[in-house]
Specification:
about 425 residues, alpha+beta, nine-stranded mixed β-sheet, six-stranded antiparallel β-sheet
Length: about 425
């Protein structure tokens, strides 16, 4: 069972919402962020290295201090203002004509430590530490994490009634074409009922934001250790998440490009693949994987279909069934000698939002030798892995659209 609460959100006035709200810190590099940031953009708070000329080291003390200064300035200037009451917030996103409806809420860090908030990825200590410094310094969760929850009809009904009976507090289309909409749930009875319903929900699932979740939990535990009168109800025990019904979420493909063929010629690579795959040449037109265990390969200007032969994978194993596992075992490791996806410099990863044309582009440029496109993981596969305590291989899931940072912020400053 999980523990959630409403909170006094810090958020932009309606007229500034589309300018303040930004893409998350980890989808832009510093140069891209500097080019994208307008005067009021949250990027000045979540990537404050862009305020230095030349751009500063994002892990330097002066950058962490600049983040704090900018967060204070944005509130002083009225670009961010705090609600006076505790609310939940409906946050919806529209992509390609489909809208998904989430709830911005505060989750309890002990649920992450106990496993009631379930993860499916490993985190890197250095990235956790960086996010911890920001949360600790700001005494706030500036950016939400992205969670899923098992579908609940009563929650759906509450969200639907809020959306239907109230004008949106925010409603804008970002520069990437995705729509973002928010409603403040101002009726106390509805907020109280949501807290009650989630107390009966068995688990939440981290979809995107493992490092931010781990960092928030560590800060909560750190604050507890410094408070001899800790009760578990303190604001520092809670961190910001936007949580969606699992059925509304779509995972898109996360593909691979490789710099060399491990000493093989293209013809030798294709011969080696035939041991475990049915290999079919598709020609110059982009080929999309048709289903589970079917892959697209781009090599020397041609697309190929690779279908894993029966017996080369284990559909009864939550990890073995994943196409990232099949590709890693049968191609990247066995043929191309790439043992560790986390550390190898010979491989790179391309989110499916960029399209398969990005794969052929990187191979045609000579930067890469071969590309592999995978069929997307399903939400049910993700849940099965999290429920069994397993960890997905690196770079398995790509969620789109990303949450907009700055739509609402949670502070635990006393």
């Amino acid at each position: 069972m999980v523990r959630i609460k409403p909170f006094k959100g810090i958020r932009p006035p309606k007229e500034y919402a589309s300018e303040v709200a930004s893409r998350p810190y980890d989808v832009l590099n510093s140069v891209e962020a500097k080019a994208e940031a307008t005067e009021r953009s949250l990027l000045h708070i979540i990537k404050p290295e862009i305020d230095f000329d030349p751009i500063a080291d994002e892990h330097s003390q002066e950058v962490y201090e600049k983040a704090m200064e900018n967060f204070r300035l944005w509130r002083e200037k009225g670009w961010l203002q705090q609600d006076q009451e505790e609310y939940y917030y409906v946050y919806a996103q529209t992509m390609e004509g489909r809208t998904q409806y989430g709830l911005a809420m505060c989750c309890h860090y002990e649920d992450y430590l106990s496993g009631a908030i379930k993860k499916h990825e490993l985190t890197r200590p250095d990235k956790e530490e960086d996010r911890m410094i920001h949360v600790r310094n700001q005494k706030a969760n500036i950016e939400p994490v992205f969670f899923a929850y098992p579908d609940n009809a009563e929650v759906d009904a509450i969200v639907e009634s809020v959306v239907k009976n109230n004008p949106a507090d925010y409603d804008f289309v970002a520069e990437d074409g995705f729509g973002h909409h928010m409603w403040v749930i101002r009726e106390k009875a509805l907020n109280d009922r949501l807290t009650e319903i989630f107390a009966g929900i068995p688990a939440l699932y981290v979809a995107d934001g493992h490092h931010r979740t781990a960092a928030a939990a560590r800060v909560g535990a750190e604050c507890q250790s410094k408070n001899p009168n800790h009760t578990g109800d303190e604001e520092y025990c809670f961190f910001l998440a936007v949580t969606f019904p699992a059925s509304q979420l779509r995972i898109i493909d996360y593909n691979r490009v490789v710099k060399d063929l491990n000493g093989l010629t293209p013809a030798e690579l294709i011969e080696a693949l035939k041991k475990d795959f049915e290999v079919e040449k598709k020609g110059k037109e982009i080929y999309n994987p048709a289903g589970l265990h079917n892959f697209a390969m781009y090599l020397e200007g041609e697309w190929y279909s690779l279908t894993a032969k029966p017996g080369t994978y284990d559909d009864n194993d939550p990890i073995g069934v994943l196409d990232v596992t099949v590709l890693s075992n049968l191609v990247l490791d066995k043929i191309l000698d790439i043992k560790d996806l986390r550390t190898s410099k010979r491989i790179d990863f391309v989110g499916g939002i960029r399209g398969l044309g990005e794969l052929s582009k990187r191979v045609d440029s000579g930067e890469m030798k071969v590309a592999f496109a995978l069929y997307p993981v399903s939400m049910q596969q993700l849940i099965n892995i999290a429920d069994t305590g397993n960890i997905m291989p690196p770079k398995t899931t790509w969620f789109e659209p990303k949450l907009r940072s700055g739509v609402v912020i949670h502070s635990f400053e006393e």
